[in-house]
Amino acid sequence: MARHSIPDIIEQAEPRQGDLRTDARPVMWNVIRSLRPQQWTKNLIIFGGLLFGQRLFDLHSVFYATAAFAVFCALSGVVYLLNDVADRDADRRHPLKRHRPIASGDLSASVALAAAAVIGISAVSIAFVLRLEFGFFAAAYVGLLALYSGGKVSYYSAPLFIFGRLREYYVPQIATGAGRLAAYIGLEFAGGLNAWTAAGLSALNVTANGSWLHKKSRPFLEWPEKEDPATDRELFHYILPAAPAMIFAAFQSQITLFLISIFGGTVDIAQVAALGRIGQLFTVLMTFNMIVVEPYIARLNRKRLLSMYFKFLLLAAAACTPVVLAAFLWPQAFLWLLGSKYEILRGLLGWVVLASCLNYLAGLMWVMNRARKWIFWSGTILEVVLLLVLQTAYAICIGIRTTREAVFLTFAMSFCYLIAHGYVSIYGFIKGPRILQTTAG
After folding, report:
1. What is the value of pTM for the model shown?
2. What does DSSP assign to residue 105?
3. Are 179 and 123 in contact (CB under 8 A)?
4. 23 in helix, strand or coil?
5. Which of 189, 237, 266, 388 is the most buried (most CB within 10 A)?
6. What pLDDT is attached to residue 309?
């Protein structure tokens, strides 16, 4: 639900009916539950630096990484506490969230805010003790995380798209985007544009959009009185076959960096990480696919499906073509994104952009296949097997010791995604969506 400012949260923390309910379980247990320890596994990515930097057996580095992990777990828990206090009234009307400690009254809002203050101050203090820069980063982290958690743009976008309220969706985002751009330009001329101010403006932009979309989509939202087991089974039925490929694909960039860390050098790791910024340019297009193309394809009738499917692919290919040509013929524009010290990568930029475009086309097919519920075990198995075979053969026959070899591995992998999603598309057009098997009860 929509987030609130800290003063609003404190003002709302006065005892209300339901806040003072006692529970047999200790208060500390309810605080721990509200910190969401099951979510702390996301912070394990911190230890990736030890792995890729080959410092797993450096006790000094292990100590600092472990301390940073603890700090981030504590700060993320603080954000959960603040959000649960702010949203407790809405959570009480939700069929699942009403069981959370604060919403159910097992943990009072005042105790939750006190715990958040103690944990937050302690975690930030520890961060400053570890290193001054880390302390500032930790303080900014909890602030930005609280802002981002309030910008549930995608969550509240769906009702507006379903009911055709596109003006309410696009106008505020264009306005806030223009405002953020103007702020960037102003800060640049004033000498105040840096990573901190850019991240802060981005967080404020997302939060503003989320608040606006929440307000506009509220008339179209209605929580069910209870869960629908049939819907849960259907979601599980369609998500399960895609899960292995999604998890495997999510770790591909880390796998590439890991292989280079073993066979290559630190310079190559930095170069591959820098080239990864180029692929981020296509995240905007992927967002467009999910919020525009996917719902359109999902409700398209069968007669028009084939023609529109290929029209979207052709439009995407046409949009990518000039970008690829520019990367090969005029790579300087892309070098600006990387910095002058990566001038040595000029000859690889075209291949990186081409691989990103191919991955984007494969992602477009994946989004359209998903919209039609064309998710099959055979497609997942094909994708994983193709990637494993290619990576193994490439590592044995060519090697992954340099940035160039890593780039061409990524380029080759993009064809694996195209083949796998292309197969699913053909199979889906022939067979249609998977049918949920039900038993008579």
Report:
1. 0.58
2. T
3. no
4. coil
5. 237
6. 94
Taking a C-beta distance cutoff of 8 angstroms, is the pair 324, 354 a contact?
yes
25-29, 176-180, 357-361, 405-409, range with greatest mean pLDDT: 357-361
pLDDT in tens, 249-283: 766 666 665 665 565 554 456 677 667 767 766 76
Residues 433 and 372: their CA atoms lie apart, in Å, by 7
pLDDT greater at residue 423 or residue 282: 423
CA distance 427 to 321: 28
- Contact assessment for residue 198 and residue 206, using Cβ atoms and an 8 Å cutoff: no
The residue written with tokens 């919209």 in the block is: 371
Q: Between 23 and 383, whose confidence is greater? A: 383
Q: Parse the chain into domains and list their residue ranges.
A: 1-150, 152-227, 230-431
The interaxial angle of helices 153-162 and 166-190, nearest 10 deg, is 140
Q: Copy the structure tokens of residue 145.
A: 């995380």
For 316-336, the pLDDT digits (tens) are: 999 999 999 998 998 887 777
CB burial of 54-71 (b: ≥16 within 10 Å; e: otherwise) equals eeeeeeebeebbebbbbb
Q: Looking at the chain, how many residues does it have? A: 441
Give the integer Cα–Cα distance in Å for 71 and 65: 10
CATH code of the region 1-150 = 1.10.357
CA distances in angstroms from 313 to 285, 379, 425, listed in the order given: 13, 19, 12
Cβ contact 373:379 at 8 Å: no
Residue in the structure block whose two tokens are 């780039």 = 407
Mean pLDDT of the region 408-431: 92
Burial class (CB in 10 A: 0-12, 13-18, 19+), 127: buried
Q: Identify whether the C-beta of residue 337 lies closer than 8 Å to the C-beta of residue 277.
A: yes
The answer to whether 124 and 142 have CB atoms below 8 angstroms apart is: yes
Tell me, what DSSP letter sits at residue 150?
T
Residue in the structure block whose two tokens are 């603040």: 82
Alpha helices (H) in 150-228, listed in sequence order: 153-162, 166-190, 195-217
**Cα Rg for the chain, rounded, in angstroms?**
24
Q: Which of 193-202, 225-234, 308-317, 328-337 has the highest mean predicted lDDT (pLDDT)?
A: 308-317
Task: Provide the terminal-to-terminal Cα distance of the chain, rounded to the nearest Å.
Answer: 37
- The span from the CA of 103 to the CA of 261, in Å, is 47
* pLDDT single digits (tens) 109-162: 888 888 888 998 888 888 888 887 777 778 777 766 665 555 455 567 767 766
